Amino acid sequence: MECILYKGNAFCIEWYHDTKGNSQALKFYRALNQKQKIQFLKLVKLMGDIGKIHNKEKFRNEGNKVFAFKPMPNRFLCFFVEGKKIVVTNAFVKKQNSLPVNEKIRALKYREDYIERVKEGAYYNE
C-alpha cells in the first residue's frame, strides 16, 4: 500500500493502514470536497516542510502522544515516530468543542498497532 501523504524537509507524513491495507483517514480524505482537501494539504505541507505549526487552531497536542491537524470543520489525528515521521491515523468531522473520546481511543489503538507491526517488521512489507 502507498502510505506516503507528503515528504518534506522536516517530516515525512504517512497514512496509517491496517493489516488489510485499509486507511480510515485516507478514505475520509478522499470523500472531502476540493476546498477541504486543499485546507488539509496546506497544513500537511507546512508541517512537512517547516516541522512546526504554531497556530493551535490548526495543529494541536491532544495528549497521550496524539496530535490533530485541524482544517475546519475536520480533524485528522496523528502521532510522531522516530525517523522524522508523522502517521495520520483517523479523521472525522468536528461536531463538539472537545475531542470525542472514541476518536482518541481509535488513534491510540492505531498507534499501538503501528508500533507493534513496525517492531515485527511487518508494517511496511504488507
From TrEMBL:
Pfam family, one: Gp49
Taxonomic superkingdom: Bacteria
InterPro entries cross-referenced by the UniProt entry: HigB-like (IPR009241)
Name of this protein: Type II toxin-antitoxin system RelE/ParE family toxin
